[in-house]
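Translate structure to sequence.
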């Protein structure tokens, strides 16, 4: 440790501070935005739509150790018409879709939206291509919690860095 440059700790700490801060702020912002949209959608008009796709979407990723993790998401698509203009939608609700570790966990969500089902589609009257089936912010609580945890970690990193800077100048 004695051979490391004096500013190495500050550079590494600053890097992690910026990363955790940026991701934390992004998640909190996205969560708040999703909640605001869900709140605004309470006044959106509804129109009848038809479900065209209702399936489980699989997403896999492999980490550096070669371990592959797979998550399953509901994939629902629907068609609807506003003032004679046809539209297609893919959003069940606002915010990110919740991923599950087992495809059978997605089935209860998909059971609400079988192919061919007639559903109420809530659309933004100012931008009819923006639509949802559920006027709520799905996943926003989780994003808010993770965002706040990352902001707290950022604060801790900043405090440690500040203490290090003060010690170097005293």
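Result:
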């Amino acid at each position: 440790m004695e051979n490391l440059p004096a500013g190495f700790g500050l550079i590494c700490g600053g890097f992690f501070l910026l990363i955790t801060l940026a991701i934390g702020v992004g998640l909190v912002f996205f969560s708040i935005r999703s909640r605001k949209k869900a709140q605004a959608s309470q006044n959106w008009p509804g129109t009848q739509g038809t479900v065209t796709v209702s399936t489980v979407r699989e997403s896999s990723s492999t980490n550096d150790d070669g371990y592959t993790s797979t998550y399953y998401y509901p994939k629902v698509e629907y068609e609807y018409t506003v003032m004679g203009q046809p539209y297609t939608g893919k959003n069940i609700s606002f915010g990110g879709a919740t991923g599950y570790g087992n495809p059978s966990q997605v089935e209860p969500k998909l059971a609400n939206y079988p192919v061919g089902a007639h559903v109420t589609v809530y659309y933004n009257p100012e931008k009819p291509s923006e639509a949802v089936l559920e006027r709520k912010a799905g996943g926003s609580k989780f994003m808010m919690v993770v965002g706040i945890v990352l902001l707290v970690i950022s604060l801790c990193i900043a405090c440690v860095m500040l203490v290090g800077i003060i010690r170097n100048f005293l």
